[in-house]
Amino acid sequence: MAVAVERPANDELRNLSLSGHVGFDSLPDQLVNKSTSQGFCFNILCVGETGIGKSTLMDTLFNTKFESDPATHNEPGVRLKARSYELQESNVRLKLTIVDTVGFGDQINKDDSYKPIVEYIDTQFEAYLQEELKIKRSLFNYHDTRIHACLYFIAPTGHSLKSLDLVTMKKLDSKVNIIPIIAKADTIAKNELHKFKSKIMSELVSNGVQIYQFPTDEETVAEINATMSVHLPFAVVGSTEEVKIGNKMSKARQYPWGVVQVENENHCDFVKLREMLIRVNMEDLREQTHTRHYELYRRCKLEEMGFKDTDPDSKPFSLQETYEAKRNEFLGELQKKEEEMRQMFVMRVKEKEAELKEAEKDLHEKFDHLKRTHQEEKKKVDDKKKELEEELSNFQKKKAAAQLLQSQAQQAGSQQTKKDKDKKNFFFM
Amino acid sequence: MEGQPVQPAPEETPRNTNPANVGLELFGYVGIEAVLDQMRIKTMKTGFEFNLMVVGQSGLGKSTMVNTLFKSKVSRKPTGPGYEEHIPKTVQLQSVTHIIEEKGVKMKLTVTDTPGFGDQINNENCWDPIIKYINEQYEKYLREEILISRKRKIPDTRVHSCVYFVPPTGHWLRPLDLEFMRRLSKIVNVVPVIAKADTLTLEERAEFKQRIQKDLKAHGISVYPQEDFDDNPDDRILNDKIRDKIPFAVVGADKEHQVNGKRVLGRKTKWGIIEVENPAHCEFPLLRDLLIRSHLQDLKDITHNVHYESYRVQRLNESNRLALSPVNGLLGKDEVESDL
């Protein structure tokens, strides 16, 4: 039961006039001071082929040298590399994270090239969502890693967008603020550039790709944003080397036929990009990421998990209870699966047992068979033995008989011999 | 699947301390600080909301004080003679909302008054409706935050600051004051003030303040600005100075008088004119500076980051315990078995 709060009869908000200086006009300053002490986060994703000038452009944009080695061209797949830096200008601390797509456009089969990029963006949203859903959370000093701006580098072919570009941008446009730029624009002549730009824009429109719209609802920035939007996609040239032009050093690229000055608006749109990205719309980019892209992700994710906004009267915490219901459902499923697995296990065991029994039976049979064979052999051998023994005893008998005979014969012989001998001896005597 | 190249997982920046977090020097002007202006413009466009609650016995000058703070007729209590204020039998809460603008900055101000507080003979639990109201606002915000399709800007009705009027007895805090502040300081930023301070001399004021500070410390009541939430040493120094002077001895007035050729807000008495905005007379400017000119954003931040979060934690844990049994989350398994 809500506490009855009395409100005045006409509940419309009245505008009240102040009769003196109250002082809350310092509120924006208070807010800004708070943010300055905490620092800002800004995360840029650079999507483009290897060697198209992503790292150089980042160096040029932020007037510093981010350490990085140029990537090779033989990566097996697209990989995202994120690096964080802390920049400080006067009293503003910026935590800048630059995410690079290494190996984009290098493979022979580029069907899945966009997938790691989408995955990375979703992972950052997921991390923020997890933190937001925690019970004990600390959102105010959470290091925001969600991508605030995606610079899509278009190769300066001069004709039209590649199909890889169209597919990738279509997949990314609902997840991140896309700002298309034409890289290495010093390879395109002025008249070709104009045609190229309009071709790109019309292709984007006809394919339904939603790129980032510079906000025009705030009077202070509406004008500059409107004029800048006409020049999309920005044709940029990046350079960290300085060349002496006139009497000062400025960033430029030196060719035998001339010098391309990075910060000269007649030569390229680098200044426009820097204005739009950093000096005018950084805050808006961050806001759009949070209020549009992140909310969309959050809504889809929660709906996917089965949550609905039931009418608030029925359940005290629709999120909580749905979560519990889902959890119980999930646990029930797990239990069922466990049961299934257990049954299958039992069945398998039985089968194995039967098999083993069969095998055992077989073995027994074999054993019996072998035994029988063995016994037969033994019998055979025994029989043979007997035979042999018989033979042997016969032989012995024969031998004995023969010997007897022989000894008889010998005796007779010896008697004879004796007689002979006596005879002989008689003769000799 | 043969032939598919194995894609290694994407490298993610570690969230807390990144050893690769290189502090780099900028070789020239980039324009990062323009983001401050961008923020300023954005906040001026969206405007601010501020919800103030005033609590105290009737007759302590709450409505007048609010009018003085915002230099306009925020609360429309008629103060002329012949008007009999009806003291309600229970504590009620009355809210008025106005939109005020100054130098392009729009603010939606809501002031909640609590007539009937501490006016009965038996004042037990007279803080309950107030606590209930504050928690209801947190609940409303929580519901909005938890929706699947949320509004772009969740309307903020949470009470950012509760100004508690202490009657100028000059002695100690009364049990009612202690009880109230003890309970409320846990859920909202409480700013105690000594009301109608023109009845105390400067020495009496100083003594009274000392005693109040001792009392608060003895009972462990932390009023705004709370010591635990000082972000950095600069803040601490600033807030220590303020904490020295709490509670402010204030006088409210919405009539102007002529003093030394200038028109000032003040109370005219037979023995002189008490100038409300004169720091020598009363500490109203300090209160105004604290509430509006320097710490308004801080009040809102602490309400959002501390009080609201602890309400949320409490609420989520509560419904957690309701839905789950302690054993691995299966609903009512043990209870079913015990029924058999």
From TrEMBL, chain A:
Name used for this protein in its record: Septin
Keywords: GTP-binding, Nucleotide-binding
Ranges where the record places region Disordered: 402-429
Gene behind the chain: SEPTIN11
Superkingdom field: Eukaryota
Basic and acidic residues composition-biased segments: 417-429
InterPro entries named in the record: G_SEPTIN_dom, P-loop_NTPase, Septin
Compositional bias annotation for Low complexity: 402-416
Family: Belongs to the TRAFAC class TrmE-Era-EngA-EngB-Septin-like GTPase superfamily. Septin GTPase family.
GO MF annotation terms: GTP binding
From TrEMBL, chain B:
One Pfam family hit: Septin
Keywords: Cell cycle, Cell division, Cytoplasm, Cytoskeleton, GTP-binding, Nucleotide-binding
InterPro entries according to UniProt: G_SEPTIN_dom, P-loop_NTPase, Septin
Major location (coarse): cytoplasm
GO cellular component: cytoskeleton
Region feature Disordered, mapped onto this chain: 1-20
Domain Septin-type G positions: 46-318
Subcellular localization(s) per the UniProt record: Cytoplasm, Cytoskeleton
Biological processes annotated in GO: cell division
Gene Ontology MF, one: GTP binding
Superkingdom of the source species: Eukaryota
Gene3D superfamilies: P-loop containing nucleotide triphosphate hydrolases
Sequence similarity: Belongs to the TRAFAC class TrmE-Era-EngA-EngB-Septin-like GTPase superfamily. Septin GTPase family.
Name of this chain's protein: Septin 12
Lineage of the species this protein comes from: Eukaryota, Metazoa, Chordata, Craniata, Vertebrata
Name of the coding gene: SEPTIN12
